[in-house]
Design goal:
The protein is an alpha/beta fold. It is 27% helix and 24% strand. It contains six helices and eight strands, in the order ααβαββαβαβββαβ. Strands 1, 2, 3, 4, 5, 6, 7 and 8 form an eight-stranded mixed β-sheet that branches. The protein is globular, with a radius of gyration of 15 Å. The N and C termini lie far apart (47 Å).
């Protein structure tokens, strides 16, 4: 199955092939309406918000870092800063996200990026047997068990979600 048939972004489709995950093309789901936000994706899929894996790019002392976070949680940038041992962590702008990953905000997958970046994966993703992540476009998602997803992303397991007050 080609990227045009599965709906995956061509770069992500190529990454699936390179990783030996070609069978995943058949499991990619395409939606007529955008699933840019975790809430939109969860509603379209019919899953819990926390089963969405958000791929968020931050700048840690100016260097891009990818944080994988469950859809129901927010990233605590102070915890990311402490984890990385840097001075400042800020949310990356759209230009840096596209330059780093090759994808637009709302469609960034957890792996298959243009450049190799440091990846932090929040432990909350392991609360589910299956999580759903963007397949390179705001209209496509794919399911994967979180341990496999984190391994393919080269992620380090951390606790960086905001704690409830």
């Amino acid at each position: 199955m080609t990227s045009s048939e599965s709906g995956a972004h061509p770069r992500f489709a190529d990454a699936l092939e390179e990783l030996g995950l070609g069978e995943l093309h058949a499991r990619i789901r395409r939606f007529p309406d955008a699933t840019r936000t975790a809430a939109e994706a969860a509603a379209a899929i019919g899953c819990e918000l926390s089963q969405i894996c958000k791929s968020l790019v931050f700048a840690a002392d100016g260097v891009p870092v990818l944080v994988l976070m469950d859809g129901a949680s927010r990233v605590d940038v102070e915890r990311v800063r402490e984890e990385l041992g840097v001075e400042t962590v800020t949310r990356a702008g759209a230009g840096l996200v596209r330059e780093t990953t090759g994808y637009a905000i709302g469609g960034v997958p957890p792996f298959g990026h243009r450049t190799r970046t440091h990846v932090l994966a929040d432990r909350s993703l392991l609360d589910h047997d299956t999580v759903w992540a963007a397949a390179g476009t705001p209209h496509t998602v794919f399911p994967m068990d979180p341990k496999t997803l984190i391994a393919h992303a080269g992620g380090t397991l951390v606790d960086v979600r905001e704690r409830s007050a």
